[in-house]
Each structure stands twice: as structure tokens, then as C-alpha cells.
Task: structure prediction
Amino acid sequence: MSTKDRLIEAGLGLLESDGPEALNARKLAGEIGASTMTVYTHFGGMAGLYEALIRRVFVQFGEALAEIERTEDPVTDLLALGVAYREFALASPQRYRLMFGMTAPGSENPVARDLTTEGSPSGIAEASATFEQLHGAVRRSLDAGRIHGDDSVAIAGQFWSLVHGFVLLEMSGFFGQNGEGVTTVLAPHAKNLLLGLGDDPARTEASLQTVLAWAAARGTTAKNTPQVTSIRHGRRPRANR
Result:
């Protein structure tokens, strides 16, 4: 493993154990038995290392989303991406914080761009690729006539904000510690959004119940969510059509 990769791995280890606030050049160099200058030699400083860590974590996040199997029901698949999103965040909250800029004061996060004007959430390809998985599920739902609208990017943003906002509140303890909010807050919220976008109520309910049953079978609640490396994405039963 190269020195550069060793620094990234050391950064991920410190991130998991102590959070983004613990990341500094001295600690990272010490983890691999090198001098502080090594960070500057390979990354130009901590800003470059932050970006490398963010890229690596978004790759892992994208892999978790990509493992969700497509079915014939695009809305089921769209909702399942939300489940995977939540699982990743709960399994690795410190990586999730880093991805979205919830880091130590003064650190720079190079991820965010204005989705509403640029059509992409980030100038970092690895981050934009994860959004494109969501956007693709939205486009499939539009093409199938399940939902309606002229701006698929904005609709994807609506689903993203729905799940992201829920996850942040759940991680802070506002929806309990055993996943209670999934059925009482997140699922009804998703249902309301789908109905607002014109989906048929019966088909919405079928897709939602399929995904809820699948998520329950995985047992991924706030207390027993598996670690990222052990998340398994099995087959989901198909929704009644």
C-alpha cells in the first residue's frame, strides 16, 4: 500500500474512532509513523486530505446504493434507495458527517454546489454519482407514469431532502432509538410526496408496504444496524401491481 493510501486509511480509522474533529496532520502522520510533512507532500495539506477522504467515503456510499437490486417497480426501487441511505448513515455516522460537511470548525468541504441552478449537487464526481443513482430511480418512476413532473432533478432533490432530513433528526435522537420514526414519520412523509407527485394511492401503498417489509426483514434499526462492511442487500419481494 502506498504512503498516500496509508494516510487515507489512517484518516478513515481516526474518523471512525474520534470523528472529523480528530483529523489533523500530526495525528495522521503519527498513525503511519511518518512526519507531518508527509501529509503536505502527498495532499498539499489537510484540505487535500479531507477531499481524498470525502471521495473515498462517497465511493463506499455509492457501492452501498448500487447493491440495491432493481425490480419491475421503479417506485419500490426509489424507496429502497432511501432505506440504503439511512442504513449507511446509521452504520457509519462519522463518515456521513464528513460527506456532508458536518466537520470541525474551519475545515473546508469541497462537495456542495447549488443543485437548483447547476443540476448537480457537487463538483466531486464521486458525490455526484451517488445523486445520479437517486436521479435515475426518479427518471424511471417518471417514465413509468408512476409520478409526474417536468424537472427530474428537482424531484430527486425532494426525495433526497426527505431522507436526509429524517436521518439527521433520527441520528440526533428526535425519533427514538429503535427505528420507530421509520413507520410513523418517514414512511408517511414518503407516501405524501408520492401522492403529491401524482402516483396512484393503491400502487403507492403496495410499493411502500413492500419496502417496509423488506427493511424490517433486514433488521436495520438504530440499535442493531450492521457496520458498513457487513451490510448485505438481499432480494426484495416484488410489489403487487
User: Anything to note?
Assistant: Residues 46-66 form the longest helix (21 residues).
